[in-house]
Amino acid sequence: MADTMTAQETQATGQYSDPNVTPPLGQAIPLGFQHVLAMFASNVTPSIIVAGAAGLAFGGAEQVYLIQMAMLFAGIATLFQTVGIGPIGARLPIMQGTSFAFVGVLAGVAATQGLSVALTACIIGGVIHFALGSVIGKLRWLFPPLVTGLVILAIGLYLIPVAIKYAAGGAAQFQMEAESFGSLKHWTVALTVVIVALVLKFFTKGTLSSAAILVGMIAGYIVAYLSGMVNFGAVAKASWVTGITPLPYGFEFSLGAVIAVTLVSIVSAIETVGDASATAKAGAGRDATDEEIQGATYADGLGTAIAGVFGGLPNTSFSQNVGIVGMTGVMSRHVVTIGGVILILCGLMPKVGAVIASMPLPVLGGGVIVMFGMVASAGLNMLSEIPMNRRNMVIIAVSLAVGLGLNLVPTAVQYLPGVVKTLMTSAVAPTALCAIVLNLVLPQED
């Protein structure tokens, strides 16, 4: 502990420990690009999954558009955080990106009710998320590590089967290469991604280590290309620059979808509070101020609401980028602003989105095996902070059993009204509700 505190104190006195100080451009631009590399794969993956759940053609124009919006509004939301507008934004080096926390809920809604309902829920959920900024400090007691860790663990466990399906060559909604599902060709590509990512993560340092998953997916992409699995037809047809379309799928309200997205938004807001606090501690050796935490939550909500209007999914602060701040000791918010601008430029270029959309499913599968596993591991890490007494073990057992069980067997609640059924089979929402209620009503043990 003494060594850690000494490092933080030393870092806090460094020339770049002030968020308002900018390193020379020769250093700031590579650092900004490193922030993009660290989050790029995680940022676009949720859009690919939700697009697939909605039945959009894999590699088609609609999927390309959703990928573009993921990049564009991650960049815009990042500027909300780093540059700020009035009380909006922490004005800290916080990188925003599309949140995995919403994938389970939105994939279910998109598959059963369509993208119009899912994106409408994102818009309304974003507005509610924004409003949480004024009361976020008062709600934190509802989400101790026991509850938040359970929710994050449930998200990871829910998504892992999706990763395996992709790695094996597809999923039911894509209806592609069904005859070769699980073939050695597919698993060779997926395992290339996993092996390269692990080697780079643990046996290299700096940018290669930070961008291990992205580089692993590039390696898998090359293997897939050499195997004849890549089709660049959509890339050739895609334009270099395009505009954006408001409400591309219309506006369709569903109470169940809004409630489910709102519940996840609350958890996302709590995660952002943690990231803002961790950023301030890692980069400047201090605690985040109330204004920074409030501003970070406002930026989260505003970014989510505006993204939903144009076809983007909810965004949140990215924890991996907090690690970069700690690793480099560069607290400058303007470095992350450069990263946000890079994402905006990528989002306005359909060619970039088409290249990503041409990525075969096993490549994506190899990447998300690692990413989804890390989501589950992050939940376990949070749960490791709590005492494993009988009370807490019962809360964990019941919450996961109900949340994941109903998701695996949705017909168990087939006679419930549509709104309630959507909530009960979303995995995340029932896990969160059970954990919150049980944590409130069960007596504490000595």
- In total, the number of strands is 2
Order of helix and strand elements from N to C terminus? HHHEHHHHHHHHHHEHHHHHHH
> Main β-sheet, in a few words?
2 strands, antiparallel
Backbone shape:
globular
The separation of the N and C termini measures 28 Å
Assign the structural class, choosing from mainly alpha, mainly beta, alpha/beta, alpha+beta, or little secondary structure. mainly alpha
Strand content: under 5%
Outline the low-pLDDT stretches: 1-13, 172-177
Strand order of the largest sheet: 1-2
Summed up, the helix count is 20
- Binned, the helix content reads 55-70%
Number of domains: 1
Provide mean pLDDT, rounded. 81
Rg: 21 Å
Keywords:
two-stranded antiparallel sheet; 446 residues; mainly alpha; transport; globular
Can you tell me about this structure?
It comes from Shimia sagamensis. It is found in: Cell membrane. This protein is mostly helical. The protein has one domain (16-441). It contains 20 helices and two strands. The chain has helices at 2-12, 25-53, 61-82, 103-113, 115-132, 136-139, 145-167, 184-203, 207-210, 212-226, 233-237, 255-284, 290-309, 319-328, 333-347, 350-357, 361-383, 390-408, 418-424, 428-441; strands spanning 96-98, 315-317. It has a two-stranded antiparallel ribbon. α1 (2-12) crosses α12 (255-284), α2 crosses α3 (61-82) and α12 (255-284) crosses α13 (290-309). The protein is globular and about 60 Å long. Residues 1-13 and 172-177 have low confidence and may be disordered.
